[in-house]
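[RESIDUES AND BACKBONE]
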Amino acid sequence: MTVELTTTDLATLLKQKAGVTVDPLDLSRPGATFDDFGVDSLGLLAVVGELENRHGRTMTSAETAKSSAEFLQAVNLSLKEGS
C-alpha cells in the first residue's frame, strides 16, 4: 500500500509543527509558496522531521521546497520509493 501526503495532511502538519493555519485549498493553488503562508524554514524543517519520524525515511529534497506543490511532490516521491 502506497501512502500519499495530501494538502489536507500538509495543512494539519503545518498547524501542529509550524503553528501556521493554512486552508488546504490554498495549498493547492498554483504557485503557492510557503512564504505566502508565513511558513519559515524552521517550520518547514519541523514538518519534514515529523514526516521522517513517521515514515522512517530521509526527505532531504523536501527541506528545500519553496512551494507546497514542490513539497508534496518531493515527499510523495520519497514515500513511493520506500513502498
About this structure: Helices lie at 7-18, 24-27, 34-37, 41-55, 60-63, 68-82. The domain at 7-82 is CATH 1.10.1200.10 (Non-ribosomal Peptide Synthetase Peptidyl Carrier Protein; Chain A).
